[in-house]
Amino acid sequence: MFKKILIANRGEIACRVAATAKRLGIQTVAVYSEADANAQHVQACDEAVLIGGPAPRDSYLQWQRILEAAKATGAQAVHPGYGFLSENEAFAQACADAGLVFIGPPPSAILAMGLKAESKRLMEAAKVPLVPGYHGADQDPALLKREADRIGYPVLIKASAGGGGKGMRAVYGADEFDAALASCKREAINSFGDDAVLIERYVQKPRHIEIQVFGDSHGDCVYLFERDCSVQRRHQKVLEEAPAPGMTAERRAQMGEAAVAAAKAVGYVGAGTVEFIAEQDGRFYFMEMNTRLQVEHPVTEAITGQDLVEWQLRVAAGEPLPLKQSELRMHGHAIEARICAENPDGGFLPATGRLDVARWPAHVAFERGDVRIDAGVREGDAISPYYDSMIAKLIVWGEDRAQALARLDAALRDTHIVGLHTNVAFLRRCAATASFTGADLDTGLIEREKAVLFDQPGLPLRISAAAVVAHTLALEAATQGPDPWSARDGWRMFGSAARRFDLEAGGTHHEVLLSRHHRGGMTLTVEGEAIAFAVQSSDAETHEFFLAGERIRVKTYAQGERVAVFAATGSAVLTEVDLIAHAGDGPAEGGRLTAPMPGKLIAFLAKAGDSVTKGQPLAVMEAMKMEHTISSPRDGKVAELLFAIGDQVTDGAELLKLEA
């Protein structure tokens, strides 16, 4: 076994590898960018080496610096994690040339499976089922268009060298093809340095089912069953589970054997995932192979009881696979939810900012348990525009799917993140949809259930307002002196005392009145309704109150005037306005076309002087590895372009001026 390894990645996967290595008595070396100097993965490792600036191209993609760090620290092997260089055959070969063990497959396997078109040809030879499509080297746009017409719409355009939904578009008609192809090629060249694409028939109502495979250097290869990853947004996974609901033992064996055949066709060693598109009737087709560990590997660990990172380390050290196929067993059901910094109601736009609050349910970290959190960040850390938007992975296990679903809902309910937009509430709604609970799964689930997933109201105002009042009263009680004259409870010998709270929720101002009666009772008046109110607070964050006899428990977290409220039925963010402090504030300027997040401007789709219509795309930005289109909010004329293509722009920067 190795004595020291270098982890050529960041975030939760780097923390996960460090935890397993430590358990095995292996020392670890972290590499980090200037943006990650205080990151959790740096603290988790025994040593750390700075390798460059905050952008990935200046740090985590600089493999020469990574190799120099490995040599300088005496590491014997390099674990690439996932993303960045994990599927770069040149990096894997460079490790070998430098006398380092690359903890992953041989470069030849990465190369063969990394090019989707080439992998399709290999799979066809290995008799693995394929979706009808075009996988040729000729990338003439006119030819690609003819092939799409031949296959029949809808078709899927996919970056040949890519993954993670980047460089991928569904095209439903010939009139959409040219624009979609151009966008895919732009995104592919920016993400992978290669704009080649392939075209496939877009299977209707498909399930995305993948098989975890593992090969060793002794010629053995096994599959560790399947994961259903059908719940996706923008072709990226949201919820993953194992085993796949409705999977029969016969179909499981067929898919597992096909996956092993795919791995053996390229001489695969280490952890890999063979991904299939499956029809509702059970027919399945090879889609691609990810030549690395997957983000969703914890659900496989949960149902098999195996540590896949430990398997990686042992296999890379030359040991045989820990178990034979006949020795592998499944038990129970596991579900993973990807918690991301993004705004689902804003088209899943990535969010940046500080994790002012990051509170998790009771859990284990990086180990098998009923509730597990894999996180590479801590409370107080910043989510920057340089890296992926994922904050953490929440994994739950149950004896069956019903128990796993119940644990997932409870764990999401107790996940409290404040400081930026997240998808936690969306995940909870998604897991509660009729489609997901009923295991009616396909990649269109989110679109099909959009009526109950997007733009949903948070907590009722009466509850969130009562929580803010309880929070304020708890703070005041904690700071009052021991004598009755310093009490701030509004006590009166006769009559009642009324106090006004000015709250803003969703851009709307609300006046809430708290009345205290001389006999000790309280009344809260919200939107003209007077409600009997009684409150008991354990501390400034934990409150239990009664509204018209209903008992409600909440958590509150305040940053300045903003108070985040979390209850069993949902969450809300309100602003407790200090009217005196805001006296004289004027209206904010509006109507500008601004950057919705920090990122790089990669295209203007109109020039100065052009007349444009409402909804017309005007600019394209790239942030967190994805393209985002900014459209015109109204009809008008472009007066001026304020940036050049390639410029880095800040959140809220005005990109262009639009005249009426």
Strand order of the largest sheet: 14-13-10-11-12-15-22-20
Distance between the termini: 69 Å
Quickly give the structural class.
alpha+beta
Spans of at least 5 consecutive residues with low confidence: 586-591
How would you sum up this structure, described in words?
Keywords: ATP-binding, Biotin, Ligase, Nucleotide-binding, Transit peptide. Residues 580-659 form the Lipoyl-binding domain. This is 3-methylcrotonyl-CoA carboxylase alpha subunit. It comes from Roseateles saccharophilus (Pseudomonas saccharophila). Its cofactor is biotin. The chain is α+β, with helices and mostly antiparallel strands and 660 residues long. The chain has 17 helices and 39 strands. It has an 8-stranded antiparallel beta sheet with strand order 14-13-10-11-12-15-22-20, sandwiched between helices. Strands 24-25-26-27-28-29-30-31 form an 8-stranded antiparallel beta barrel. 26% of the residues lie in helices and 33% in strands. Helix 12 packs antiparallel against helix 13. The protein is globular and about 85 Å long. The chain folds into 5 domains: 4-103, Rossmann fold; 132-201, ATP-grasp fold, A domain (Dna Ligase, domain 1), CATH 3.30.1490.20; 207-453, D-amino Acid Aminotransferase, Chain A, domain 1; 461-576, Glycoprotein, Type 4 Pilin (2-Layer Sandwich), CATH 3.30.700.30; 593-659, RNA polymerase II/Efflux pump adaptor protein, barrel-sandwich hybrid domain (OB fold (Dihydrolipoamide Acetyltransferase, E2P), Beta Barrel), CATH 2.40.50.100. The chain starts with a strand and ends with a strand. Strand 25 and strand 26 (522-526) form a beta hairpin.
